[in-house]
Hints:
The protein is an all-beta fold. The protein contains one helix and 30 strands. The chain has one helix at about 60-65; strands spanning about 1-10, 10-20, 25-30, 35-40, 50, 70, 80, 85, 90, 100, 115-120, 125-130, 140-150, 155-165, 165-170, 170-175, 175, 190-195, 200, 215, 225, 240-245, 255-260, 270-275, 275-280, 290, 295, 305-310, 325, 330-335. Strand 23 and strand 24 form a beta hairpin.
Amino acid sequence: MEKTLFGKIDNREIFLFRLENENKMSVTLSNFGALLIRLEVPDIHGKVADVALGYDTLEEYRENNNFYGAIIGPNSNRIGGAEYTLEGKTYHLDKNDGENNLHSHRDLGAHKRVWDYSVEENSVTFRLHLGHGEMGFGGNKEISVRYTLTWDNALEITYDVTSDQNTPINMTNHCYFNLDGQGSGDIKNHKLQLFASAFTPVYQDLIPTGEILPVENTPMDFRIMQPFGARMHQLPETKGYDHNWSLDSFNGEVRKIAVVKNSDETRTMTVYTDLPGVQIYSGNMMEPENAKDGAVYGRYSGFAMETQFFPDSVNKPHFPSCIFGPDRPYHSTTIYQF
Length: 338
């Protein structure tokens, strides 16, 4: 493990933590936002590439409108009308996505906070306190996110949250992947297999309608591996994927949910989680911008696989419950293995 200074925010030191295993896979993290900064992975020929989109400087991450590498919390994805009612009380949230709430808050969310940290041989744990009422959410929360790099080329992310009141908790990591290497072009020829027989259709503002529909005969059907871009033309409104899938075999246990291969199938990522859903975003709304290592990103330069409870679950009681509190602490694991 290597630790280097990345900068300062309000006189608090921001560090980069780099973990590397004997296979030359490495991950670089930061205590600002508990960010995943770099993810360097060898392909089948031993060629190493950074497969995570991002920036070079702390100042760029302080903006980070695309949420590159960010831990999202306390609630990821969208809440319709930027409000919810729980136990007779209505909570009002930031309207930062039209009339809706996206990723808790663009400026005050977990991805813009300085976290405490502790380091072990092959892991870094970040900790954050969020007080009752912050960003509009109830409950005093203690959040812990541990990144572990394993000998067999897996990055394991473990989330633990306790709250003294019942409140929605829906943590995720918003890393954008390009398995050809960040800055190498679009991901339309990446191939995806997703173990999901159903998805949650959305209105035009991307809030779920409340239905859970089969993927069969829709562009959401990735049960058999196929390129990301094969059926994007069937999604003219979103110009690609920004949808949640209801994952098969949800019982609270970690299981394999997806396999992704890069364009020449020399690098493979297998995804595991214990959560009921995954939001896949294919970078449809990315605007051209300068990024790390001299790269220039544009539309479809990367894809996010945000393991999660379904969007707007707090307003849809028939969706798997994202309400946690004194009698139900939050614990979840997601693994990206290469």
